[in-house]
Amino acid sequence: HLVDFGEFDCGVVDFTRAETREWFAERILGQEMLDIGISGWMADFGEALPYGAVLQGNQAGAELHNRYPELWAQLNRELLDSLPNGHEIVFFNRAAFQHSPAYAALFWEGDQLVSWDRHDGIKSAVTGLLSGGISGFSLNHSDIGGYTAINNPLARHIRSKELLMRWMELSAFTTIYRTHEGNLPDSNAQFYSDEDTLSHFDRMAKVYQAWAPLRKRLVEEAARNGMPVARHLFLHYPDDPVTYQLSYQEFMLGSSILVAPVLDPGVDEIRVYLPAGDWVHLWTGRIFRTPYQGKWITIDAPLGQPGVFYKEGSQDGMELRINLMHAGMIE
Q1: What angle, 0 to 180 degrees and rounded to 10, lies between the N-to-C axes of helices 195-210 and 161-171?
Q2: Bridging pattern class, strands 90-93 and 40-43
Q3: Catalytic residue among 44, 78, 221, 312
Q4: What digits encode the pLDDT tens for the residues 282-320?
Q5: What is the pLDDT of residues 4-55, one digit of tens each?
Q6: Band of pLDDT at residue 254, cut at 50, 70 and 90
Q7: Are 215 and 229 within 8 A, CB to CB?
Q8: How far apart are CA 224 and CA 9, in angstroms?
Q9: Which of 7, 100, 119, 164 falls between 20 and 30 A from 331, CA-CA?
Q10: Dihedral sign, CA of 237, 242, 246, 252?
């Protein structure tokens, strides 16, 4: 079924037909991708099955519309499962339905605006990460820097250097650390734009690497019981009413590390809510004690040091701090 997307035309194929699935897996994913050495891809779209389409067995597109992205993810998964052991491949989806997490290796949140906005910018990336996590999408992330840039007489949203660098800090604490040039590459700041962006990208990649042991354990936990890697605070502090008032401001990695990314321009400090307990500031080792109830604090957060805390005595937190020390990032 040919569809005009405005920017391009595409064909929507019938994944309910075994012959079509076999052809697509062999010809497109196999010969056109795996055979030339591609080891990962964005399995985009899946939401565009026209309601008026007719599929095998006279199924109406309207009836199969929501299940179509599941079939798309399932096809990619079947290809991965058919490969020999040791053949490492990853794909990630955007469109999804109820059973998509059973098939997809990863998800990303789509095309955020290259802005600081809470409705469709960097703040919305955190909201989507957390709401998706408690909806069964446990392995999720966003494009570093966002995707959608706008540059016309009516609106102008171009990715700034500061936004890109703060988004690197956010993404360093998600399942995947992945860049995207965006829809207007020449207008947007890129990780390779200058020495500052390249150095910052390298720094935050090392941060991402430093919590790899914990990330592996959290991914394994997600596979067992569906708990997201990045978690809203109320999952671990259900009796603290303040946590229910938070949206994009902060999140947990597992049960012992708290991340409060910088999501506003021109600031070098951040206000963070710490639930009851004793918390260690990752970058300085300073301890904040809140034995009976949580409290708000304000902490320095210059570029390269987003608000990150761990519970005092936490093995995961101490492991992260030690790994960063070995990388020469903290004393």
Answers
A1: 10
A2: parallel
A3: 44
A4: 999 999 999 899 999 999 999 999 999 999 999 999 999
A5: 877 788 889 999 999 999 999 999 999 999 999 999 999 999 998 999 999 9
A6: very high
A7: yes
A8: 40
A9: 164
A10: negative
Q: Which residues lie closer than 8 Å to 137 by C-beta, 6 or more apart?
A: 96, 100, 101, 107, 228
Structure tokens at 42: 């964005």
- C-alpha distances in Å from residue 56, one per residue of 14, 61, 62, 140: 7, 10, 13, 33
Q: Is residue 26 flagged as an active site residue?
A: no
Active-site hit among 47, 117, 240, 312: 47
Query: Does the pLDDT of residue 331 top 90, yes or no?
Result: no
The one-letter amino acid at 229: V
Q: Has this prediction a pTM greater than 0.90? A: yes
- Give the chain's mean pLDDT: 95
Catalytic residue chosen out of the listed positions 32, 78, 111, 195: 111
What is the Rg, in whole angstroms, of the alpha carbon atoms belonging to the chain? 21
Give whole-number Cα distances, 240 to 273, 296, 308, in Å. Answer: 11, 13, 20
The angle at the Cα of 39, spanning 164 to 32, to the nearest 5 degrees, equals 115
84 token code pair: 């020999």
From first CA to last CA, the distance across the chain in angstroms is 60
Active site residue 111: yes
Under a CB-based contact definition with an 8 Å cutoff, are residues 99 and 83 in contact? no
Whether 88 is a known active-site residue: answer no
